[in-house]
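R.M. (postdoc): so does anyone remember the format we settled on? I'll just put the structure tokens first.
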């Protein structure tokens, strides 16, 4: 059964007309955006599915416009390209969404794992469907000097998916990169650097590669992530034959009007067995001097970098607990009013990488990460989200995530290393963070 009827496609065609300019049409529909993504993504080279704790769901297929950038000014570069495009096409102020993805480093990785994922990119899909509990809207975007037929034919070919469970994919094998003993030695070396006064905090990452007998059913897995982690920012970004997907608990930044929110997390502990045990562990985390120091480093650095961009800035005086399925974190909400023409891309350029994924001081931490880490982070500890032509948007850190390519899935996790960190405890923290996708991938 078709997801979009012939009558609805005719309505879109009437709105688009025969103009040769960049044009947009939209209609209201009663569809789940993720059903749309699940059946439509294999038909295009680029696709996105994204959800947030507010309940909004959005999916996009194909590319109507795209920009990429690298280097230390990659976000201001993207801002300029987006502004020129929206001005040239008359889309400024109309709320058209562009999706944003970027890497931890300011330059793209050199290895094959992250092929197709630039250091930073924005793209406007040809077809977007966005919805919440009140219904959905399909938006079709046709680039200038292009007929609408190709995009409307794609829309008409998308079928309503049948229900099917996430099933076991057969045999699996896993590899740790680097080997656990080597990663533990890196933690010890980082602690030695901290005790020597060279650095205050550094986040060290590791990877687990899952080799499956069959290619993972990516959008079935994504649906399971959304079901299991509704309090997270769930994302799946397809580029070519790969998909970067995850369930991030951490909001790097969201903008609505001139109001900015950021929700850094740092300091972690496992969940308990039963409410009494769980509360006891949470109270220990709140009272932990080591974790409170780590958390304060993150919050203070973000606030310091935001201050020049804002006319008002406020952070919670004391951290609270943010409880996820397998781990709980210290959490602080930061609220600010942005100055003048500052937007979300300016904010990201000012604060990324935060000490939640890099360290303190930033430059020294990045140099130590380059020295001690043997993996290519790519978009892990980068970010995924959206920004629209009115300046609103939301971006989550690329955490609790993995890159699926063929029958191999590269999962990533890291831990913040400060004075008092112990390798065995930090290793256990990474295992808890790997659990969401690892459990779904290898479930029997």
């Amino acid at each position: 059964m078709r997801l979009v009827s012939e009558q609805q496609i005719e309505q879109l065609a009437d709105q688009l007309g025969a103009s040769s300019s960049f044009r947009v049409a939209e209609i209201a529909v009663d569809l789940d955006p993720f059903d749309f993504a699940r059946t439509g993504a294999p038909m295009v080279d680029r696709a996105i599915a994204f959800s947030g704790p507010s309940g909004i769901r959005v999916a996009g297929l194909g590319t109507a416009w795209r920009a990429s950038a690298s280097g230390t000014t990659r976000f201001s570069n993207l801002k300029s390209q987006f502004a020129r495009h929206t001005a040239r096409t008359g889309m400024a102020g109309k709320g058209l969404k562009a999706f944003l993805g970027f890497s931890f480093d300011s330059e793209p990785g050199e290895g094959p794992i992250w092929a197709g994922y630039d250091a930073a990119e924005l793209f406007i899909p040809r077809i977007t469907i966005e919805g919440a509990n009140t219904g959905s809207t399909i938006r079709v975007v046709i680039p200038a000097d292009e007929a609408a037929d190709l995009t409307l034919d794609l829309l008409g070919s998308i079928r309503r998916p049948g229900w099917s469970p996430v099933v076991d994919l057969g045999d699996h094998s896993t590899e740790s990169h680097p080997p656990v003993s080597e990663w533990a030695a890196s933690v010890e070396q980082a602690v030695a650097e901290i005790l020597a006064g060279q650095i205050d905090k550094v986040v060290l990452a590791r990877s687990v590669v899952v080799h499956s007998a069959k290619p993972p059913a990516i959008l079935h897995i994504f649906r399971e992530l959304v079901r299991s982690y509704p309090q997270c920012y769930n994302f799946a970004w397809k580029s070519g034959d790969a998909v970067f997907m995850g369930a991030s608990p951490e909001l790097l930044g969201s903008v609505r009007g001139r109001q900015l929110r950021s929700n850094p997390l740092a300091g972690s502990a496992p969940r308990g067995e039963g409410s009494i045990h769980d509360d006891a562990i949470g109270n220990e985390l709140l009272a932990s001097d080591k974790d409170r120091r780590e958390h304060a480093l993150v919050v203070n650095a973000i606030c310091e970098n935001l201050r020049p961009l804002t006319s008002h800035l406020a952070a919670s005086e004391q951290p609270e607990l943010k409880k996820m399925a397998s781990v709980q974190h210290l959490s602080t909400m930061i609220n600010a009013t942005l100055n003048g023409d500052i937007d979300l891309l300016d904010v990201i350029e000012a604060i990324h990488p935060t000490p939640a994924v890099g360290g303190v001081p930033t430059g020294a931490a990045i140099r130590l990460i380059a020295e001690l880490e043997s993996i290519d982070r790519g978009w892990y500890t980068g970010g995924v989200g959206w920004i629209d032509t009115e300046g609103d948007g939301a971006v989550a850190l690329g955490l609790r995530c993995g890159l699926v390519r063929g029958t191999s899935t590269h999962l990533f996790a890291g831990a913040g290393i400060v004075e008092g960190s112990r390798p065995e405890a930090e290793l256990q923290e990474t295992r808890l963070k790997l659990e969401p996708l690892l459990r779904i991938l290898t479930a029997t």
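R.M.: ...and that's the designed sequence above, right after the tokens. Also worth knowing: Residues 248 and 399 are 5 Å apart (CA to CA). The chain has two domains: 6-155, 172-244+257-381+395-442.
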